[in-house]
Amino acid sequence: MLTYLEIHLYFTLPPCLLLFLTHRPLLHKRDTFRFLLLCTIVVAATIPWDSYLIRSGVWGYPEGVVLATLFSIPVEEIAFFVIQTYLTTQLYALLHKPIFHPSHLPLSPQRGWVGAALLLLLSLLGGTAVHHGHRLTYLGLILLWASPVLALLWYLSGPYALRLPLLPALGPVLIPTAYLWAVDTYALREGIWAIGEGTKLGWEVWRGLEVEEALFFLISNVLLTMGCIAFSHAFALADVLSLSRPADVWSVPPNPLAQPLHTIRVLYRALTLPPDGYPTRTISHLRTAARTLQKHSKSFHLASSVFGERCRLLLLSYYAFCRVTDDLVDEAGCTGEAAGNVRLIERFLALFYPGSAGLEQGELQNDTQEDKNTGRMNGHGHIYTNGPAHSEEDDLMLASHDSGYGDCWPSPTHTSRPKTTQTRETVDTFIGSLPASVQPAFSLFRLLAPLLPPEPVYDLLRGYAFDALAFSPSGQGREVVSSFPDVLAEKEKMPLLQKLEKPLPAIQTEADLILYCRRVAGSVGVACTHLMFAASGLPQPVPQELQQKASDMGVALQLVNVARDLVDDAKLERSYVPSSWAATPSDTTPSGILANPQRAVDTFRPRLLKLAFAYYQRSAPALEQLPEESRLGARGAVACYMAMGVLMRSWSFKRKGRLAMGVKLVVVLLVLYAPRWGRGFRL
């Protein structure tokens, strides 16, 4: 006959080890804090109850199967409390990684009154059963022990639990329960422990498994899972409140173990939040942002599961703003509307950055050709000359002033920009004037603005301005619509707009392409780096060298996008292929690409990908400088994108489909479980 210790060695510890190895790359400090706190509560609450069971003869064990006892409880039984808690909480954490919990918060505080009342009724029935004793004793003690705690948890987080997907909600209950039923059946059949006669109903689920034992494992896993859900509920609500009401000290420490009492106090406040302080609007906007991410970026949606919860919240909010503002420009009906939307976005940004130099027309004309050839561009696309030395290969990032790209800003002057809060438009009024479909994203940016410097945001806007003026929206032709008088009135101040009336490609040199990529993607990389540092709570500013590498990585990802969408962009009368890459410049125009799409793909895609991987190789090592809880997610997101480049270089590539998604999933798994894979030299 096996001993209780051998039951652990052979049956309960191996799945713990498997879960540890599986979850280790994804483990965050919040997961550890949740396990330790729940484990403390479980051990403290169960020892008196279990001690009473043994002393009352409800269950027992023969001589020689346990090492020692504490309060009449075998030490292996106390270890089992910890082991079961670990199994359930770690499985819960693993299954809930894909879930963005703030998007599942109810729009108003809800309490599980009905469920709590029914559970309290069960506890009364349990007390009655214990009072009558005999065959109802064990059943009554289980109900009396578990029902009040479960009633409290359901009252606080029951409605939230009902909003979660079924597998993550029920998996941590059913999977450990089924496994522990099997282990318990073996132990009961072998006589390693036994249920006392006269204290049980005598009913069996199957031979050897008493119905009370089955109920105990089921209800104990329900308790653990509901405890985990309550933690997720509280953390999600605290994260939303820290974003929407930062002055109220809702922020949970990046490492809850360092400040456990403060963390518990914040979580308690979140779970007991009164209705008048509930962030209904922000939750609604986050739901919209989550749907936007899932619809438009399968790669980032997959990789976002790896980020820490607060970092994921900030990045998803910024992605929603970038996605919506990009659509405002790309899906405009004409050039005038696109340019007007760019100016609309600029006016919105001015509400948050009133002291910024902004995007004054002709701003980049002050950078001379000599500056561009001797200086180095930082992560914001601006010139600085005091940076570290670089090789000739780095000169790809320098812009060509002759292209006119530096002049592509449709706003005449900034003399009308409000300089004080008294004269500026209020943010609420501005957002309220926008179409309802874009209001959530703009509202979320309002909350992010204190965490972001103006430079990367305005550089993104410069990229939008280029798209608005250089390419016609939705393939409608290059003509500027006369019904947009502001654009026509400033025509003389916009050299690029004048150039577009000539049959010249908008991007003439490789440097033009790199500068464009820096603005539409490198700027996003820089902004995301700031948000990662903000989520981590690190007090120091983002190092300039890391911002440069973030910009380089953004360039790499955008070049992969350009290579992937080469023909699709041409169908929309867009081409980002530099005219200098072809003997005949017309070959890089949309019509030239569409004249022979396969030739264009065979000619330009390899060069675009070579350039993309060059930028990836030199920026990938910098991912290790990111905050710990953002590092793996960033590597996963980048690897997903670059995997598309690997596919395009390797065999017939289809933009969508099971193959592409399967490859991305494999890449994320490699990033997680083969740590040295994907760090530049592996791709």
Automatic annotation (TrEMBL):
Chain ranges passing through the membrane: 6-23, 35-54, 66-87, 112-130, 136-157, 164-182, 214-238
Cellular component annotations (GO), alphabetically ordered: membrane
Family membership noted in the UniProt record: In the C-terminal section; belongs to the phytoene/squalene synthase family. In the N-terminal section; belongs to the lycopene beta-cyclase family.
NCBIfam families: CarR_dom_SF (TIGR03462)
Membrane topology of the entry: Multi-pass membrane protein
GO process terms (BP): carotenoid biosynthetic process
EC number: 2.5.1.32, 5.5.1.19
Record InterPro entries: Isoprenoid_synthase_dom_sf, Lycopene_cyclase_dom, Squ/phyt_synthse
Keywords from the named record: Carotenoid biosynthesis, Isomerase, Membrane, Multifunctional enzyme, Transferase, Transmembrane, Transmembrane helix
Protein name per UniProt: Bifunctional lycopene cyclase/phytoene synthase
Catalytic reaction equation(s): gamma-carotene = all-trans-beta-carotene; all-trans-lycopene = gamma-carotene; 2 (2E,6E,10E)-geranylgeranyl diphosphate = 15-cis-phytoene + 2 diphosphate
Subcellular location: Membrane
Keyword set includes Transmembrane helix: yes
Listed pathway(s): Carotenoid biosynthesis; beta-carotene biosynthesis; Carotenoid biosynthesis; phytoene biosynthesis; all-trans-phytoene from geranylgeranyl diphosphate: step 1/1
